[in-house]
Each structure stands twice: as C-alpha cells, then as structure tokens.
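Quick start: load a record and inspect it. Here is GTPase Der:
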Amino acid sequence: MRKSTVAIVGRPNVGKSTIFNRLVGERISIVEDVPGVTRDRIYSQAEWLTTSFNLIDTGGIELGDEPLLVQMREQADVAIREADVIIFIVNGREGITAADEEVAKILYKSNKPVVLAVNKVDNPEMRENVYEFYSLGFGEPYPISGTHGLGLGDMLDDVVGHFPTLESEEKDKDTIYFSLIGRPNVGKSSLVNAILNEERVIVSNIAGTTRDAIDTPFKRDDQDYIIIDTAGMRKRGKIYESTERYSILRALKAIERSDVVLTLIDAEEGIIEQDKKIAGYAHQAGKAIVIVVNKWDTVESDEKAMKEFEEKVRAHFPFLDYAPIVFLSALTKKRTHKLIPEVKRVSENHALRVETNVLNDVVMDAVAMNPTPTMNGKRLKILYTTQVAVKPPAFVVFVNDPELMHFSYERFLENRIRDAFGFEGTPIKIFARRRS
Ligand code: GDP
Ligand code: GDP
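Running the structure step on this input writes:
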C-alpha cells in the first residue's frame, strides 16, 4: 500500500505556495508578492482526516529563465507524472488567463483527476467569481482562500476522494483486518499502541494509508493482521470543522473493511447510550466482535467485580450475547496480550464453514428435542439446512412454509448450531426458505 501524491499546479502568483504551506501546516516556504519566488521546499507530507499524502508544489520547480509557457508546461508534466490527483489553482480576482487555458489543455490530456480551486476568494461576496471557471472544463470549481484558510476542507474531501483505495487493491484473504471502535477517550489510541508495542508483534511497515484510516500491518505467531486505525485523527485536522460527523463516517468505513471489530467500553465511566449505538453498527454489519472493557486498572479488579461488570455488559448489549469480553488496561498493559489470540479465534469462527451432513444432524437432533411450532393447526416441517455464506456464517433452512418459522424457534436453532460448532464472537444468520 503506497501513499498517494497530490500536485499543485497553476500559473505564478495564484497562491500555490500559500496553499502548500496551509496544507503542510507549517510555514516552510517563502511567500512574497513577486511571481516565481524561490521556495524552500516543494515536496512535503500533508494530512487530511486520517489520510496522509505527499504534496508537491510544482511552482517551486526551477527552470532558469525559460519563457512562462514552457515553465508551466514542464510543471504540469511533473504533476501528471508524479501525482494521483492534481489541484489546479486559478486566481479568482483575475479571471481566466491564456496561461490558465494553456495549463488546462495539458491537464485534459492526462487521465489524472483534476480538482479546480479558485483562490483568493477571501469573502462570501466573492463566491460569484467562480462561475466563469466552469468553462475550464474540470467540473465544479472550489472557492478557496489560501491566506484565510477558507474552503480547503471541501476541496480536500474531493481530492482525497480520488485516491486509489484499499478496496480497489486486493484484500489479502489470509490477513485478519480489525478495527477498534468506541466513543472518544475510551482508549482506542492507547490500545492500538499497546498492541503494536507488544514484544511478539512485528510491525512490517506503517506506510499504508487509505482515505479513511491508517492501516498498520503486523505479524504475530505467523498470522498477518492489519489494524485499521480510526483513532488518532480527531487530534489533528485544525482546518476541519465538523469532526463529529466524520468520526462516525470513518468508524463506519473502518467497520465495513474489518473482519473483527473490537468494541471498547470504559470501565471507569461505565456504559452509556452512545456505546450501544456504536456497538450496534458492528453487529448490524455482521462482523466478528470482541467486547473490550478497558481501563480495568481503575476498578477493583477481583473476580467478583469482573463478574458484576460482565452482567452489566450483557444486560446493556443483549444483541451481542455471542461476543466474548476481555477485561484489560491499555495503560498498564495488563491482559492486553490476550487480545490478539481472541481476535484470531473470533475471526476463525467468522469464516467457519461447517459440513452439511453434520449440520443436518445437529438440526434434526434439535427438532427431536424441541418439536417445531404449529400455527392454525399447521406444523413447521424442516426438510434440510445448508450453510450458504461465511463472514458471517449464514444458513438457509428449507421448510414447508416460512411463515411457520417463529422467531423464538429460529433463535432456538441458532443456539443449537452455536452449541454444536462454537461460533463464539460472530453473528450468524438463519433464513427460512420454502422448498421449491
Ligand atoms: P504562487 O506563485 O502561485 O506560489 O503564489 P504565492 O503563494 O507565492 O502567492 C502569491 C501572492 O498571492 C502572495 O502575495 C500571497 O500572499 C497572495 N495570496 C495567496 N493566497 C491568497 C488568498 O487567498 N487571498 C489573497 N487575497 N491573497 C492571496
Ligand atoms: P481514544 O480517544 O479512544 O483514542 O482514547 P485515548 O487512547 O486517547 O485515551 C483517552 C485517555 O484515557 C487518555 O488520557 C489515556 O491515557 C487514558 N487511558 C487509556 N487507556 C487507559 C487505561 O487502560 N487505564 C487508564 N487508567 N487510563 C487509560
């Protein structure tokens, strides 16, 4: 997984260097009111939400005293060659110039996504200035102000949206993908660090990034894992206004890509409504789940306290009755070593496929033990059962009439299947179908 690269292009004095500085977050290059000013740096790292990327300011590419158009052509070529996405900057105070059109022509010919930004739109009244730039042919122009830091968020959403994602790369089926979810301050970042700092974990590289999260691959006991980290983000992103909306979106995206989701609860603060909502997402997505009770160091940690807390968890999360609970402390590292083996175990259950004949024996034994329900004098008949999917395991029960499959009987079958095959940590799905 490689980092994406963004290049800024545009004629001199439109504000490339100013915007480069903004995105990099430090004042590292010289900005003067002179076209073609020398820059300290033209290449740096920038971050947006959880995505870090490489940023190139092509305005800093020096070509001696070549004519303007030659310089610009060269800069655009560099951008096309190096970048995954190009930010094309124009000046909202000056309108379209011949040089803008020249750059546009070169960018058309590339297959790279181009995001058009109209700079120096320092106040809302000036927003009307952007309309003429539609004619450059790069879709909606983003009004921005480099000096005031306005409009950059919307522009960056678009830029990052064009990055190649992990989904478009191949997901390794032997690797276990997992994420940590939970409300702010529950200890997600601390736990990610604790996991990665553990002795027997070998972090292979931390280069991989996707648009919503930072992926860290590591190996433990010959098993490959990837932590999809949505945590640390919130602490950055100065220019970003509505972090809450995005933190939910990011969590959902991370859940989507995970095999296993660790749902964190704060032992010190107890369980609140928000915890249930967050855990509900993971359950609905059909992911394997481990409930992690973090900050256990803050609680009197005897067997009795654990038992009591477990009962509380079970009462608050009845829909997660299949999920194992791990009590630990990311701070003192107590019992954190138990977590990865648990992730592996539930992940295996999540991907488990059972043999059809054994499955049918289990279902028929269940029926013998607890006769099928009747409705209006008609009895449910189970003909046979088959597993149709994994991740999560799904079963189709072929019956005489699906209407007769009462919820409580379905639940009974689920429990019998769980008892027989040990699907701990994973939701399983059962569908009744009429035999055709
Ligand atoms: P570059 O040559 O494209 O890299 O442009 P610079 O970043 O060096 O900026 C050229 C001039 O435009 C400098 O005087 C900046 O202060 C000014 N400038 C940059 N962004 C803005 C902006 O958003 N609004 C205004 N009013 N001036 C800007
Ligand atoms: P996040 O917002 O979910 O990523 O939470 P952080 O990892 O940033 O942790 C929030 C706060 O809880 C920090 O002050 C941590 O030091 C603290 N913290 C995290 N884990 C533990 C723990 O196991 N025990 C205690 N006592 N504090 C913890």
